[in-house]
Amino acid sequence: ELSTDGGASFPTASASDVANTGSRAWTVPNLPTSSARIRVREHDFVAPAGVSAANFAISGNTPPNFAPVTTPITRQRGSATGPAVPIGSVSDAQTPAGSLVVTQVAGGTATGITTSGITNSAGAVSAQIAAACDAGLGSRTLRFQVSDGSLTGTGDVPLNVTDNSAPTLTYANASVNGGAGTTINPASGPTDNGTITAIVVQSQGSYTGGISVNPTTGDITITNAAPIGNHTITIRATDNCGATRDAGFTLTVNNTAPTFTPAAPVTRQQGSPGGAPVVIGTVADAQTPAGSLNVAQVAGGTATGISIGSIANVNGTISAIVSASCTATSGTVRFQVSDGQLTGTGDLVVNATANTPPVLGTWPDTMLDTGASGSVTPSAAPSDNGIVASLTVATGAGFTGSLSGNPATGVVAIANAAPAGTWPVTVTATDNCAATATRNFTLRVGELLFADGFE
């Protein structure tokens, strides 16, 4: 039992029913006095008491101490909480330092500051400290309280709050072929002292193709790139405090040359007319509709004497009239396709076959009276792969009449047949390439005819 009045009374029981081992550990109560005495009595108080012979003093409980760090802790507005940092140390004359409880309390000059994860390791105190987007800037203090369960002490931790910074995000200039697609990765970022809440396409300028941006990685996806030329693209990143960063770069959409794909070889006979248009190839371009491309024959092929006319482009299918002169040779004919800026070429193979002479029918042997006129019609009109340019008729020397041939019908006209006799007649057809064909018939004049018409 404890007396605080020099043994006049013992109102405080320190222990009851304790076995006598010769010693006793005692936690001194917070009853400050200079006249303390201890009395020990046996169980049921049947034996004389033992009382300390002299007074002793019990000193009072003293408050614990919080000693803040001296170097200011720097925190940026909007930053992530981050790991715990040392904020100070605690001690107490009566309580082990590691048993003291530390909390943040009001009273510091800091605003918008939050603490979490306060730990006390044998008196070394650490905490996680974060500054909100609207935290007060500059030199501030954050008050902490330490308690031993009865008494408390406080200390002000120095802070330095800096302003939030905009996100980091940049892109290098990029290029892509018109109509194609690509992925553009950031040259730096996206990073932020806090968190990035949005990444969007702020402006695509004169660019009309497909464009999107990954809100997490900042990767840009380009599709169907158009139009040809340089375009200024702006990507905006926004952080958790509303700060923005506009990352601009130049996207160059390249023009690529169109292509001409020749059709299967075309065969033409020397001297023949061009005939109907035939397909000579197809054209394509990544940036320009195929039907808008211009096609023309250009120098560079190996064929000679081949003429190209009436070139037409229907949705990329190219047709033309192809003809061969009388001296044409086999080889290639070169065509050029243009989108207005760039060109492409292709070589069409043209096979030139030899010209053939005219095809003639037969003229029957004919009889005329002396001095008479008439005509001789062949079994078939002259024909040619080209045209029959002329039809000449000749007979032996001495024939005084006249002979002429119609190259279209082959009819031989005879006038003033004379003198009487049998005359061999030669009909010669010449085509546009000077190839000839001949037929013969016999003209008998007068000698087998009677004046009265009866033979």
3D structure, described in words:
- This protein is mainly β and 455 residues long.
- Helices cover 0% and strands 51% of the residues.
- The chain has strands spanning 2-3, 33-40, 50-51, 56-58, 65-68, 73-76, 85-91, 101-104, 113-121, 124-131, 138-147, 152-162, 168-170, 174-177, 182-184, 188-191, 196-203, 210-213, 220-223, 229-239, 244-254, 259-262, 266-269, 278-284, 294-298, 304-314, 317-329, 331-338, 343-353, 366-368, 374-376, 388-395, 402-405, 412-415, 421-431, 436-445.
Strand content: over 45%
Fraction of helical residues: under 10%
Report Rg.
59 Å
Mean pLDDT: 94
- The number of helical runs is 0
Structural class: mainly beta
Instruction: Report the sheet with the most strands, covering strand number, pairing sense and barrel closure.
Output: 4 strands, antiparallel
Give the uncertain stretches in residue-range form: none
Give a short synopsis of this structure:
The protein is an all-beta fold and 455 residues long.
Topology:
Blueprint: E1 2-3, E2 33-40, E3 50-51, E4 56-58, E5 65-68, E6 73-76, E7 85-91, E8 101-104, E9 113-121, E10 124-131, E11 138-147, E12 152-162, E13 168-170, E14 174-177, E15 182-184, E16 188-191, E17 196-203, E18 210-213, E19 220-223, E20 229-239, E21 244-254, E22 259-262, E23 266-269, E24 278-284, E25 294-298, E26 304-314, E27 317-329, E28 331-338, E29 343-353, E30 366-368, E31 374-376, E32 388-395, E33 402-405, E34 412-415, E35 421-431, E36 436-445
Task: Sum up the structure in keywords.
rod-shaped, mainly beta, 51% strand, 4-stranded antiparallel sheet, 0% helix
